[in-house]
Specification:
Length: 360
């Protein structure tokens, strides 16, 4: 989502983050299972080959000096190859399953269309969907990049995230300190606190997501094979066009619940200013009605399918509902700035931090 959309509809962004995190964890598990299944398949193919029996029956028949002759090398070339393959099979048999390099970061990267097909001339072809990435891993055609390589392409590192979180938590501490000393906050600070709460949740669910990756990872183009029944199921789980969770399907319960929680948090924090002083009674009424609307209406809409089995709520078309919530948020945003023209005297007082220090 764009920064403008995040600012205008933070609740939708939070629902998007929660749903995408759930998709990433699910995809990461499927990628790990596909990789292990591919390794198991390779081991079974090696075990069924004649290399094992050949290495055991013929290795003792030839000594190293005998194999030094050119004629014997030509004569027994097949046996030498079989012996080498058999020894490789023995080494493979003793190997433990390596730790899967497919992590949640890789899954986020795949959901964000970070892998892209390139043709033989080095020109970009098309971005790989999550279904295509999973299909290539199952066929053993895609080697995952390291986490360091993906993080190197990301614009958000741990230091940047920590600085943003520290600044956010500092603002939350100031709000809590003003509340403990009975100092009122302005309506603008209340609205900022609501955005802050949503931002912290988004950071938590997108902590492992690469941010603003501009350079994709190149994948040589491979002609797709005929889809298997498993691939058809995966195509339904991750439809082409957009691999991230959104309000597309009625069964997408995770983003729906996340949106309800986000609207509840956003509306509850705005209700903090219920008894605040406003320049006019009209502005006070607009604030209270808008705060209650943000708090109650989304919960009612999300819970209607629970009490009514008839599927009359279409989550495939959430545009009218989101437009309505956007208008309410715009009213709260406008009131946050309009009330700055007549603030109470206590709003200009700063927090006395020395009161929180013992023996000072």
């Amino acid at each position: 989502m764009s920064p403008v959309m995040t600012f205008l509809a933070p609740e939708a962004t939070m629902a998007w983050a929660v749903g995408q995190c759930a998709d990433a964890r699910k995809l990461a598990k499927q990628l790990k299972d596909a990789r292990l299944a591919r390794l198991t398949e390779i081991r079974q193919q090696i075990a069924k080959s004649p290399c094992k029996q050949a290495s055991e029956d013929r290795l003792s028949s030839y000594s190293v000096p005998t194999l030094g002759s050119t004629g014997l090398l030509y004569k027994f070339g097949e046996e030498i190859i079989l012996t080498t393959a058999g020894n490789s099979w023995k080494m493979t048999e003793k190997m433990e399953p390596p730790e899967s390099p497919w992590t949640n970061t890789h899954a986020f990267f795949a959901l964000s269309r970070g892998f892209r097909y390139y043709d033989y001339d080095g020109k970009p072809w098309e971005a790989l969907s999550a279904t295509e990435v999973l299909r290539l891993v199952r066929r053993g055609k895609l080697i995952p990049p390291t986490r360091a390589e993906i993080k190197d392409r990301s614009k958000g590192d741990v230091v940047t995230k920590m600085v943003a979180i520290i600044q956010t938590l500092w603002f939350v501490m100031q709000c809590m300190a003003r509340w403990s000393q009975n100092l009122p906050m302005t309506q603008l600070e209340v609205m900022t606190l609501a955005y802050t709460a949503i931002t912290l949740v988004i950071y938590a669910f997108w902590w492992e997501k690469p941010l603003n990756v501009a350079c994709p990872i190149r994948v040589p183009y491979i002609a797709p094979l005929e889809m298997t029944p498993t691939d058809r199921i995966l195509a339904r789980i991750f439809p082409s066009g957009d691999d991230s969770t959104s309000f597309r399907a009625v069964g997408a319960l995770v983003p729906v619940v996340a949106a309800a929680v986000a609207f509840t948090i956003f509306g509850t924090i705005h209700c903090i200013a219920w008894l605040y002083s406003f320049p006019t009674s009209m502005e006070r009424t607009l604030w209270r009605v808008s705060a209650l609307a943000v708090l109650c209406i989304p919960l009612a809409v999300m819970m209607l399918p629970i009490f009514d089995r008839h599927q009359w709520i279409d989550f495939d078309n959430m545009t009218p509902f989101l437009t309505y919530m956007f208008m309410i948020s715009l009213v709260l945003f406008s009131l946050s700035f309009s009330t700055l023209r007549a603030l109470p005297v206590e709003a200009y007082r700063t927090v006395r931090w020395t009161e929180f220090l013992p023996h000072v």
